[in-house]
Amino acid sequence: MDLRIFTEPQQGADYDTLLTVAKATEDLDFDAFFRSDHYLKMGDTDGLPGPTDAWITLAGLARETRRIRLGTLMTAGTFRLPGVLAIQVAQVDRMSGGRIEFGLGAGWFEEEHTAYGIPFPKEKIARLEEQLAVITGLWQTPVGKTFDYDGTFYQLKDSPALPKPAQAKIPVLIGGLGAKRTPELAARYADEFNIPFASVADSGQQIGRVRAAAEAAGRGADDLVYSNALVVCVGKDDAEVARRAAAIGREVDELKANGLAGSPAEVVDRIGQYAEQGATRFYLQVLDLSDLDHLELISSQVRTQVG
User: Fold this and answer.
1) 178-182 long-range Cβ contacts below 8 angstroms, 24+ apart
2) How far is CA 190 from CA 40, 182, 186, 276, 296, in A?
3) pTM of the predicted model, to two decimals?
4) Distance CA 39, CA 33 (A)
């Protein structure tokens, strides 16, 4: 079972902070470092010093880490043209020596689009489907051949489909709680399906939908990895859990109900409940990036029991 560190830099983190956390992620034997793709803070925080770009960040980390996988939950499909994004991700994959995983979502946070002058289209899911077709099609086109695509939103003609990633196939992540179109997209394009911030019961239901969609599309249901993204707040005792919850502006009971919170034993048990529904990978949303002792505790007392 993989445990991955997942960060939300738009809440207030510069590149040096992210580098420190990524290096700790590697040193403490976690599987991967992932980050969100947002340009505007959320909730009651000043967001200082301001946003960092997801793929510029990952390019830097690709050169400054050695082992961990790197990726996004999720790259916003509204931010970048698919042809340009295919080039960016392929280049960062080569910079990392083949350690990139590519999560792509439709985009949802309208205010950040308004704040930075980014168009916010209505037809986001239909665009996402075309983006997936374009990006994966460009990567899969053999060297020396060209790629064409004639869609509603995107048209490509005689693309050389370069550069190629270092990996023969970059793993593609799709996620969400949509009941029909999301599972269908995952069945067509995903190597991993991620369920964001959902209960055990809702996770089991969504995994069931995706497994059924995969089989209907002629794939084996077990061809996909199933994962959960959940906020994490672990402490050696109740006082430490309460201190860490207060540091991120959350209540302990709420975190225990909706995330992975409590003592190491409680969190291991909670992970087991999700695992019974089919999850084999967990993205631990770490909100206090200054608390490296938190990562050490999770690694030494949670990771070692479930890894």
Assistant:
1) 178/125, 179/209, 180/209, 181/125
2) 27, 10, 5, 22, 32
3) 0.97
4) 19
